[in-house]
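TEACHING EXERCISE
Course module: macromolecular assemblies
Task: Read the component lines below, then compare them to the predicted structure of the full complex.
Student: A.B.
Group: 4
Components provided:
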Amino acid sequence: MAEEKRADYAPPADNILLDVRNLKKYFPITAGFLRRVVGYVKAVDDISFFVREGETLGLVGESGCGKTTAGRTIIRLYEPTGGEVYFKTRKLSPDSSSKMVNLLHFDKKQMFPIRQEIAMIFQDPVGSLNPRMSVFDIIAEPMVIHGRGAGPETEETVSRLLERVGLRPEQMRRYPHEFSGGQRQRIGIARALSLNPRLIICDEPVSALDVSIQAQTLNLLQDLQADFNLAYIFVAHDLSVVQHISDRVAVMYVGKIAEMTYSDELYNNPLHPYTEALMSAVPKPDPKYHSERIVMQGDVADPSNPPPGCYFHPRCQYAKEVCSQETPEWRELEPDHFVACHRAEELQLRGV
Amino acid sequence: MTEKPLLVEIKDLKVEFDVRDGIVKAVDGATFEINRGQTLGVIGESGCGKSMTARAIMNMVPKPGKVVSGEVLYHRCIKSNGSEVTDIVNTVELDPDGDLIRRIRGGEIGMIFQEPMSSLTPVYTAGSHIKEALFLHRLIPVKKVGDQMADQIQQVRHATKEEAREIAVDMLRRVGIPKPEQRVNSYPHQLSGGQRQRVMIAIALSCQPVMLIADEPTTALDVSIEAQILDIMRELQETVDMAIMFITHNLGVVAEMAEEICVMYMGKIVERAPVVELFYEPQHPYARDLLKSIPHVGRKSRERLASIKGMVPDPFNLPSGCLFHPRCTAYMPGKCDRIEPGWTQVAENHWASCLLYEDV
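Instructor-supplied answer key:
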C-alpha cells in the first residue's frame, strides 16, 4: 500500500533534480541526569516534494514549522531520522553523466563530491561570514576544500564571481565588516556559486535586508538562475517574496507540507484552508484593498505535542470531526497540485 | 471627517550623533504633526531616522545622540475641576529625568518596541511588568459614597495591589492572551513571541495613553500573529481614541493601518501624504521607487522587480544637494546635485521635498 501511494506522486523522471520522499527529522527531548529521551520534536514529519532542474521551489510557513530544518536535512547538515532524498548527480560517473542517487545512504566520504553540486545561502549575512577571513578567502574556501583552488586562476575565478554578483573585484582583499548587509549577502551568494552548483538552498536570503536591497538581491538571484540553470529551494516566511521568485510553492505547517503547487495556482486557487488563512493575513500594500481577513485563532501547534488528526484542525474554520481523528493523506488532487486536507474537494476557498 | 485637535507638533527636529568619525545627522529637520485619534505611518529603510524621531518625542535619544535643534510640542490635556485645559509642553527641552517627562513617558505617550524578546525583563512576570506601569501612571478616581458629583473627579489615588492585578488580567484579556488569570504569572520565556509582543502592547495601553508610538511592532512576528496584533491595535484605538505613530518598513502593514504617511530618507522627510494618495500618486522619486520595488501577493510572478540602484549613502560622506540624487531616476544634472530641495505642497495635504516640484 505504501509503495502504491508513493507511486501516485512519483514525479516524471526526466528533469527531476531532487526528489525528497517521506523525509523525517525528529529532535529528541532529553530530561534528567542521564539525558533520557522523553519525547521528540517532530521538526520535519514525513514530507515529500521534488525540484525540477532550473526551477525555484518556495518553502513557506510560520516560524518553527520546520522549513529551515527541511532545507538543512537535505544536504545532511542535520542527520535525517528517516526518508529518502534522491539527487541527480554528475559527479559520480567518470563521463559526468547524470545519475539518481539516494543521499541518505551515503556516508561522509561519499557525500563529499556531491556537496559541490548543492550549495547554501544563509539568512544572516553578518553571522554567516567569518569576520577574520577576507572576501577572497571566503569565496575561495569551497574551491580550496574541493581541490580546485590552486594557482592564479583562483583569483581570476573569484574576481569573476564578484563581478557577477555586482561587487568590484578590487574589494576582494577587504573584510566582511567593511560591507553593508546587502553586499554581505552578495558575498554569500558568490561563495555559493563558486563550485558551479546545480541546486542552491536559500534559507531566508532576503529577510534581513531592506526593501530596496531586497529587490536588488531577488533580481540577482533570478539572473543567476537564468545564466547557470540553477535550481533553488527558497525558504522564506514572506509570502509575497516567495510568490515573486518561485515557480512552485510548498506551504509547511508544523513539520508537514500542507499544499504544494505552481505559485500562481496556489495564490489564486488554494486548496488547503491553512494556505487560504495565511494568504488572507498578509497585509496588502494597497490602501484601497479591503478583504475579510481570516484570523487564525490561537498559536501554532507545538511540534513536540501536536494535536491528533490534521495538525491544523484546532485553528481551522472548516474543521469537521474527521479532521481531529485521521491524518489527512498527501495526494495529488489536480495535476501538479498536491494537498493534505480531508475536505479539499468540497471546500471553495478564495485566493488573493 | 472633522478636523481633530492637534496632539503633537514636531518642528524642524534635528538629532545628531557625535561619534569618533564625525557627526551623523540621524534626523535632519523633520516636521510633521499628529492629531488626536489619528494614525500616522512613518516608513523608510533602516537607518533613515524613523526610530530616532520617535525617541526624540519621548526625550529618550540614546547617547551620544543629541537633539540639536527643533521642538516637539506636545499638547497636553489637563483636566481640572471638570474643565479641560491644553498645556503645550516642548518635550525635548524637559529634563530627561524630570518629573513631567516621566509622567508623559508611558503615562501619556506609550511606546511599543520592536524586539519582543529583549524588551521584557526575564526575571519579572508579565503581570509585574504591567503592574509597574500601573503603579507609576494610573490613577484611580476616589468616589465617595453618596457623592452627588460622582463623575466630577475630585481626588485620585494610586491603584492598590489587588486592583492593579485585576487591571493587568483585564488588559491581557483585551489583547487576546488565552487564560489571562494564569498568564499574568508567566515569565517572558514561557510566552511565545506573539504573546510577548501582546504583553508589550498591554503594558503600553494599560495607562490609557493619548498616543502610542509603535516602533516596528510586528516586524519580528509571523503574518498570522501580525494580523492578530494589528486587529487588536485597531480595536483598542477605536475604543479609547488614541493617536498612533506607526513606524515600519513594511508597506503592506502601513497601507492597512495608517491614515497619513511620512516617507523618510536619510533623516529627512521626503514626502507626506494621505495613505491612498501616497500609494496611488507618489510624487517623490524615492517613494515611487520604493513602492515599485516590493513584490505584491497575487500579482503575476517571475517578473523582475524595479529596484532602486545603488545603496544608502555613507552618513559621513553625504552627497551634495538632494541626498537621493545619486540613486534617483529623475536626476536633473546641475540642479539636484547643487540645490537642497525645500518642502513643496503638491496637492491638498500632500507635500514632497523634491526639485521636480520647485521652480529652479
